[in-house]
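User: Could you check the structure of this?
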Amino acid sequence: MVDLVIRGATVVDGLGHEPKRADVAVKDGKIVAIGEIKDKGAETIDAGGLTLTPGIVDVHTHYDAQVTWDSTLSPSPSLGVTTAIMGNCGFGIVPATPEGRDLVIRNLSVVEGMDLDALRTGIKWDFESFGDYMAMLRRRAPYANVAVLAGHSTIRTAVMGEAASQRADATPEEMAKMKAMVVDAMNNGAIGLGASYSLNHSGFGGVPMPSTIAPMSELDALVGAMGPRGKGVVAIASGVKTPQELEPMAAKYGRPFFQGTGMAMYNEQEPARALKIFDDCAAAIRRGNGLYVQIPCQPLSFDFTMGNAYPFYSHSAFDPIKAFSPEQLKAVYRDPSWRAKFRENAKNPRPGMIFQGNWDRVMVAVAQKPANAKYVNRYLHEIAAAEHRDPLDIMLDLSLDENLETAFLGRFLNVGDDGVAKLLKHEAGVVALSDAGAHLIYMCDAGFGLHFLARWVRERGDFDIVEGIRRLTSHPADLYGIQNRGRLAVGAQADMLLFDAATVGVSPAERVADLPGGGRRTIRRPTGVHGVFCNGIKTFDGKDYVKHAKGPGHVLDRFNSSAGHHNSAIAAQ
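Assistant: Sure, the predicted structure tokens are below.
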């Protein structure tokens, strides 16, 4: 007898084949039959024509800390995700010596918009080395499969301490230690290396995140330390680094680079810029060098207050004040000379910055005082025009009036469906950048896959269901060398998502106070989801997580080599 039979589903296999009505049988966590199945299952689900697909593969998450206290990895499994890659941008929490831990999480709290008290209260530090961390994950048994990137910034911090954010050049001894940590991580099952050169990545007190000041020669040395040619991937928040700067490294080591950068997101002010980056990457792929762009399928939006004004942090006016208390900030925001400095910054943004001086993209989301309710859901430039004032003054005066608790929503990049669609469809693109587990103060894009199915497949029709599912499942899994996942095929792991194609999607953002110590975060809930299964075990039933003594997710530590593999992804299209 098999463990599970799902009967009468519309099966979309993730591999590009046409949908078919079929039964699917699962035993010992793997798919053992697809077709008409006579066998009885220990559990049988009548799908009644609902769509059954592989679970969503999310290659860009930040659950490194949360997994230590929350094995469900909420909210991702409820939103259809069965495999999550952590450690992106090089901002993990390992390796971390006992004396270096607080420095690591202080930086993490700022750069990834996390609640510092929740991190201090919640993280269970029963690990120090990368191998310890992987052992902890196996004990913790998450509700999704997880893979972990070794982190450039975390490794730099472990070796150099505070100097990691202050000194660009490592000594030869420090370099040797960093390389040894990369070797150790790869030997213990890291999927690759995460790094960042993003202008927007600042840590606690406004210090640059360590990897962002490192010379490219340091990144080259660490990518070289990853092991034999073709082993592992490099996931990089590439900032203003161009494909031309990254391709030589991809060629030298035979490892694919996956870039996430605002430069490669659709921007109406410079509509051709992102497309050129994608085209340059496609040309590199045709030369046999894996160069890909992680592209979000949602607008890059942030909700923030002037007490924690993350989207503005790459502007120099904020450099000295990022770690200020609310009282200190109020004094700064009242100062006309500081306002003049920020106004000047906003008029002269650099490429790659989140905020480009576009006040028509900043909306008042929540006002605290009834007298200010008239501003809610209006953009600052519109209010400014009506009141004959400057939008920056409106934002600061309103914030000061409300104890810096006014919530703003900034929709800065990847706005404009036709422009974004071109990038999503591009051969060099990978649908990603959910940032799940991070920026919880501001947003929750963990439901990117369900949003993709609602917006880009059902509503707009830019993708049919077959290609839409492939882009969320086997496409990222294969590029990252993740074996036997992202597909419904006999012998593959039974990571599955059952949903109603007519109603699948995500709810609006909701604020809940369920972090350690009562911290608040933003979540979204699924619509139209009837079941999520990881390795054949149901993790989410459409309403709630299913309680398990041990989560069914696997800690992934063996991957297919990527050498010579990239051309097949384009050839398959």
